[in-house]
């Protein structure tokens, strides 16, 4: 049972607070993704767990053992560093075999076993042709794979992977995402994976931890993070294109709750409106709120009906099987993702429907999600 | 008159052929992308257009004039570099103003132009800083501003967005596209990111190992890729490929890959394929053109679930069939387990057929 | 094919001239070692077998003749002192250097950079200033004219340079590589042995080379701190003279021999001086 517990971890570099009183529990055998933009503190967090950096405050418990004073060699953790840290004087083969030959490797492996394991990992990562070259002779993508291989060739209690596939070309990255997820499930080793790429975050994770400027904004399953972002920042950074956010006002006009949005009005179902109103008036005593909607939830309409809004095509980006339109309505610039290839002209005026079921609501000042009763949430 | 024309251009580095007999034209105000994996010759091509490399063979024409022997300064081109190339001892304002100052614009015009571009690229607040104090994204934008400020005949962009952070990259991509459209600038973009090329360009040239693979609009590249390379390179997630033969069994026309992978096809398709008289074909189908069916009769083949990746608005399922990995894209509301067997269906119309020997697309 | 311009030939011409100019002293010394006194004074003769008949006069003198004892003793002493003092400098120096590169020290107001400066600044001082004090210390410790003393003296003098060079080398090894080795399960000692020292090989080799050369060519300390048994080759050379002037032919022979041990060291260490050992390890 390898559970990792982080309690009140704080890390400062001079006056800059990199990690701020972070608490986290990682379940045994889970693939936890630490997702966040660059500078969020992901690498720092991984380094603290590995023992490479010491936290200013806080404790780390691994399987109930306090790790704070345990030296690196004894932690039984494998890590892929952001800058690879390969052994430049060893060949690729030796780099991959090095962990298997260490004194901590118990039981000792025979030469053939080492060779076999290295060959297996090399094949999975498609670096079997480079085995007898040195890192200096490899491309960036190949080096990254060697770094990944060096961690995977062992079977530690914990994997720490810091953006392990960031520098591979798109095709290989896609394949590795699936392969790594499968491998983790097969090996049943607790894994912490840091990435700024939301596709990796959602696709691979059992749970996602959203880290932003040293603080955790949300922890949840990929589903929860995507469908119920707790915060405007989470909504923006998870999803491509990012969620659209609009400053709106909620008003009641003749017993109907109406959202003043995009220089127009969107009527809401009565109960939904009442619910939101209760929450925001309670907390903020004002009609202002932020409404979010994902670009792929909107649809283009031909007729102007209730719930449709006009937009001027600002940019049209065809995307293979989809089209992303950037629209301008008044001062607001927002995006709509449509299935199929459309050829709209810049400057063309179109109508877009905004379905009320797809709306996410956030308070204006704290930017936190307004949670509604169960019947109004998407599953 | 075309803004840019390449006629039978070759580039050799000693014995190594970096660019092989490349020809294309680019009309005025067109957004043209050169797309390919690293090492395909795209940067060499761009550098030849800019004048930073000599053309080994062939001609380059800008606005109808042969420019092979002109220095970069004499061609009316501007370039934004992958690693920015900003003047470290000048402020951001001065960096952007420099191309104008050396062309003797009046100080008032210089200021006006610089501020205009700074506003568009959201860098007005850093105009007094020096490059060493800027973030990567900011340096990128300054580099773009400096290139744009001169309104040159041809804009050359070398992977301009690759260093930006993901969210900024998406915004900048749309912004860049719009800006260049509004300015009517003729732009050549070089990139390895097919998404970037497809969303921004009017036409794309796909290069691999120095050879032009296909030249066409983004939808041409996506819907009618000329060969296996383009088919596998364009589109995310990448296309699935299967090796097959045609066969007739018990009166049914089949496409036969292996015992586990064979499905019936229509007579029209069979007849059409027989025209080519080939032993094997390579069949390509995109992940979003495959779907999981409940009814066995509707489906085409069976496979086992290998990995499930929920990606928010869609779910990517990798299936295993005979040592091959097949990727399938579906809507998110699907419940499947690993190692579960599923039946996969597709529409025959969506299949693309390639000649297994030379990789070329067989046109229907 | 581009036609080669005049510039090409002029450049090549000057290069050839310079090479001849630079190598001439070496050549001259070599042939002088094969001349008799008369050939030297009658000279100058430039080409053996053409201008003059080479003789093995000097060589016989230093290897088999009267000069044998002094010469061989001087040669042996020089080799021993240079070899061991360089080794000690590098060994002791790498210990300090690793510490200074990786750990933060604070002794009162002195931090790493200050300690570094303190160590390196010892080399700024001209040896002559220290030699007199060293003489008195050696006399007290009965270390005058002893091999042990000379090795100590040379080590003491080379240590600052070794530390300075090696600190930079150790600092240039990315820390993450050490962390990676630690996480792979290797103790600090094993990390040093298998990862750090191999990567620092160029630094260790250069530090050794420089220390060796210094000790090999050193004159002043050898002069002051030895009188008979512990004399080095440079000292021996100065004793080979007639009443009026040095015996050039013998001197040249000794000089040629004196080139050999350092050349051997360079040839051996050359492979460790490969540049770019660190390349490829990190992004």
Q: In CATH's first tier, which class of the largest domain in chain B applies?
A: Alpha Beta
CATH architecture classification of the largest domain in chain B: 3-Layer(aba) Sandwich
| Sheet having the most strands of chain C | 2 strands, antiparallel
* Shape estimate of chain C: globular
Strand runs of chain B, count? 20
Query: Biggest interface in this structure?
Result: A-B, 46 and 44 residues
Number of strands of chain C: 2
- The low-confidence runs of chain C, each spanning 5 or more residues with pLDDT under 50, are none
Named at the architecture level, the CATH assignment of the largest domain in chain C is: Orthogonal Bundle
Give the strand order of the largest sheet of chain B, numbering strands 1, 2, ... along the chain: 6-7-8-3-9-10
Structural class of the helix and strand makeup of chain B? alpha+beta
Task: Please tell me how large the radius of gyration of chain C is.
Answer: 24 Å
Name of the CATH class of the largest domain in chain C: Mainly Alpha
Tally the helices of chain C: 12
How many separate domains make up the residues of chain C?
2
Helix content of chain C: 55-70%
Quick recap of the structure?
The complex is a heterotrimer of chains A (379), B (364) and C (283). Chain B is of the alpha+beta class and 364 residues long.
Report what the structure shows.
- The complex is a heterotrimer of chains A (about 375), B (about 375) and C (about 280).
- Chain A is an alpha+beta fold.
- Helix content of chain A is about 25%, strand content about 35%.
- Chain A has nine helices and 20 strands.
- In chain A, the strands form four sheets. Chain A has a six-stranded mixed beta sheet, sandwiched between helices.
- In chain A, strand 11 (about 245-255) and strand 12 (about 255-260) form a beta hairpin.
- The longest helix of chain A has 18 residues, at about 170-185.
- Residues about 375-379 of chain A have low confidence and may be disordered.
- Chain B has about 375 residues and is α+β, with helices and mostly antiparallel strands.
- Chain B has two domains: about 5-235, 3-Layer(aba) Sandwich (Rossmann fold); about 240-355, Nucleic acid-binding proteins (OB fold (Dihydrolipoamide Acetyltransferase, E2P)), CATH 2.40.50.
- Helix content of chain B is about 25%, strand content about 35%.
- Chain B has nine helices and 20 strands.
- Chain B has helices spanning about 40-50, 90-100, 105-120, 135-150, 165-185, 195-200, 220-225, 230-235, 265-275; strands at about 5-15, 15-25, 30-35, 55-60, 65, 75-80, 155-160, 185-190, 205-210, 210-215, 240-250, 250-255, 260-265, 280-285, 290-295, 300-310, 315-320, 325-330, 340-345, 350-355.
- Chain B has a six-stranded mixed beta sheet, with helices on both faces. Chain B has a five-stranded antiparallel beta sheet with strand order 13-12-11-14-20.
- In chain B, helix 2 packs across helix 3 and helix 2 (about 90-100) packs parallel to helix 4 (about 135-150).
- The mean pLDDT of chain B is about 85.
- Chain C is about 70% helix and about 0% strand.
- Chain C has helices at about 5-30, 35-40, 55-65, 70-100, 110-120, 125-140, 145-170, 175-185, 190-215, 220-225, 235-240, 250-270; strands at about 105, 110.
- Chain C has a two-stranded antiparallel ribbon.
- In chain C, a hairpin with a 2-residue loop joins strand 1 (about 105) and strand 2 (about 110).
- Chain C is globular, with a radius of gyration of 24 Å.
- The relative contact order of chain C is 0.13.
- Classes of the chains: A alpha+beta (about 375), B alpha+beta (about 375), C mainly alpha (about 280).
- Chains in contact: A-B, A-C.
- The interface of A and B includes residues 203, 226 and 335 of A.
């Amino acid at each position: 049972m390898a559970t990792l517990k982080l309690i009140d971890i704080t890390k400062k570099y001079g006056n800059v607070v990199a990690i701020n009183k972070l608490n986290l529990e990682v379940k045994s055998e889970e693939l936890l993704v630490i997702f966040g933009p660059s500078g969020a503190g992901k690498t720092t967090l991984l380094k603290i767990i590995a023992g490479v950096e010491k936290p200013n405050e806080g404790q780390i418990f691994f399987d109930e053992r306090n790790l704070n004073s345990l030296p690196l060699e004894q932690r039984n953790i494998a890590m892929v560093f952001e800058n690879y840290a390969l052994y430049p004087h060893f060949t690729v083969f030796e780099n991959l075999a090095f962990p298997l030959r260490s004194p901590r490797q118990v039981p000792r492996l025979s030469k053939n076993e080492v060779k076999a394991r290295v060959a297996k990992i090399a094949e999975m990562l498609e670096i079997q042709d480079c085995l007898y070259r040195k890192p200096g002779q490899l491309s960036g993508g190949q080096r990254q794979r060697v770094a990944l291989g060096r961690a995977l060739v062992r079977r530690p209690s914990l994997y720490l992977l810091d953006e392990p596939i960031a520098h591979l070309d798109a095709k290989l990255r896609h394949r590795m995402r699936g392969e790594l997820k499968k491998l983790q499930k097969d090996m049943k080793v607790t894994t912490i994976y840091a990435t700024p790429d939301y596709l990796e975050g959602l696709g691979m994770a059992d749970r996602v931890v959203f880290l932003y400027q040293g603080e955790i904004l949300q922890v949840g399953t990929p589903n929860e993070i995507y469908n119920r972002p707790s915060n405007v920042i989470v909504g923006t950074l998870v999803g491509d294109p990012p969620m659209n956010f609009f400053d709106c006002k909620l008003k009641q006009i003749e017993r109907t709750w109406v959202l003043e949005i995009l220089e127009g009005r969107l009527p809401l179902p009565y109960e939904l409106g009442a619910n939101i109103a209760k929450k925001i008036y309670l907390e903020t005593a004002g009609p202002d709120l932020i409404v979010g909607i994902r670009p792929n939830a909107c649809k283009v309409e031909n007729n102007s009906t209730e719930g449709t809004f006009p937009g001027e095509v600002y940019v049209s980006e065809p995307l293979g099987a989809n089209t992303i339109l950037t629209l301008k309505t008044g001062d607001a610039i927002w995006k709509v993702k449509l299935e199929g290839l459309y050829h709209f002209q810049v400057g063309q005026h179109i109508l877009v429907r905004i379905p009320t079921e797809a709306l996410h609501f956030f308070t204006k000042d704290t930017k936190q999600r307004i949670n509604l009763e169960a019947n109004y949430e998407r599953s | 008159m075309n803004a840019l024309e390449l006629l039978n251009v070759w580039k050799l580095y000693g014995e190594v052929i970096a660019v092989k007999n490349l020809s294309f034209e680019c009309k005025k105000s067109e957004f043209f992308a050169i797309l390919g994996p690293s090492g395909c010759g795209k940067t060499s091509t761009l550098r030849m257009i800019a004048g930073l490399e000599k053309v080994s063979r062939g001609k380059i024409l800008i606005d109808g004039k042969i420019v092979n022997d002109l220095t970069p300064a004499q061609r009316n081109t501007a370039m934004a570099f992958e690693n920015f190339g900003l003047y470290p001892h000048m402020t951001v304002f001065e960096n952007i103003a420099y191309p104008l100052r050396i062309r003797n614009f009046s100080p008032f015009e210089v200021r006006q132009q610089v501020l205009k571009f700074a506003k568009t690229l959201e860098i007005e607040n850093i105009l007094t800083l020096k490059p060493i104090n800027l973030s990567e994204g900011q340096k990128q934008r300054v580099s773009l501003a400096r290139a744009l400020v001169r309104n040159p005949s041809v804009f050359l962009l070398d992977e301009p967005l690759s260093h930006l952070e993901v969210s900024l990259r998406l915004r900048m991509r749309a912004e860049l596209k719009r800006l260049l459209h509004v300015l009517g600038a003729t732009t050549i973009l070089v990139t390895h990111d097919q998404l970037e090329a497809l969303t921004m360009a009017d036409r794309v040239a796909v290069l691999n190992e120095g050879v032009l693979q296909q030249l066409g609009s983004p939808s041409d590249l996506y819907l009618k890729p000329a060969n296996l390379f383009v088919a596998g390179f364009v589109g995310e997630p990448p296309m699935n490929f299967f090796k097959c033969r045609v066969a007739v069994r018990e009166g049914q026309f089949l496409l036969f890959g292996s015992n586990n992978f064979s499905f019936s096809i229509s007579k029209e398709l069979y007849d059409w394929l027989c025209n080519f008289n080939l032993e094997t074909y390579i069949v390509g189908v995109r992940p979003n053109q495959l779907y999981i069916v409940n009814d066995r009769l509707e489906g085409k083949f069976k496979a086992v679930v290998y990995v499930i990746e929920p990606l928010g608005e869609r779910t990517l399922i990798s299936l295993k069939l005979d040592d091959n990995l097949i990727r399938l894209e579906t809507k998110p509301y699907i419940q499947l387990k690993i190692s579960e067997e599923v039946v996969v269906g597709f529409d025959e119309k969506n299949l693309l057929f390639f000649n297994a020997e030379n990789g070329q697309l067989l046109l229907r | 094919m581009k036609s080669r311009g005049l510039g090409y030939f002029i450049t090549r011409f000057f290069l050839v001239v310079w090479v001849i100019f630079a190598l001439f002293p070496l050549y001259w010394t070599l042939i002088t070692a094969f001349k008799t006194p008369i050939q030297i004074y009658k000279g100058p003769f430039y080409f053996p077998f053409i201008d003059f008949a080479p003789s093995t006069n000097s060589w016989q003198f230093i290897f088999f003749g009267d000069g044998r004892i002094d010469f061989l003793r001087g040669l042996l002493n020089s080799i021993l002192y240079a070899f061991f003092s360089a080794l000690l400098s590098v060994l002791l120096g790498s210990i300090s250097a690793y510490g200074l590169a990786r750990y933060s020290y604070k002794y009162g107001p002195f931090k790493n950079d200050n300690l570094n400066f303190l160590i390196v600044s010892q080399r700024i001082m001209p040896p002559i200033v220290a030699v007199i004090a060293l003489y008195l210390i050696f006399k007290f410790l009965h270390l005058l004219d002893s091999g042990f003393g000379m090795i100590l003296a040379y080590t003491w003098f080379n240590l600052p340079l070794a530390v300075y060079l090696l600190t930079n080398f150790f600092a240039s090894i990315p820390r993450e590589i050490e962390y990676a080795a630690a996480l792979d399960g290797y103790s600090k000692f094993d990390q040093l042995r298998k990862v750090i020292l191999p990567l620092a090989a160029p630094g260790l080799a250069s530090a050794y080379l420089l220390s060796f050369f210094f000790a090999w060519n050193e004159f002043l300390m050898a002069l002051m701190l030895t009188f008979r048994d512990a004399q080095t080759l440079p000292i021996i050379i100065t004793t080979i003279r007639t009443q009026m002037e040095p015996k050039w032919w013998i001197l040249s022979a000794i000089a040629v021999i004196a080139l050999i041990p350092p050349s051997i060291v360079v040839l051996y260490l050359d492979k460790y001086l490969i540049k770019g050992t660190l390349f490829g390890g990190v992004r």
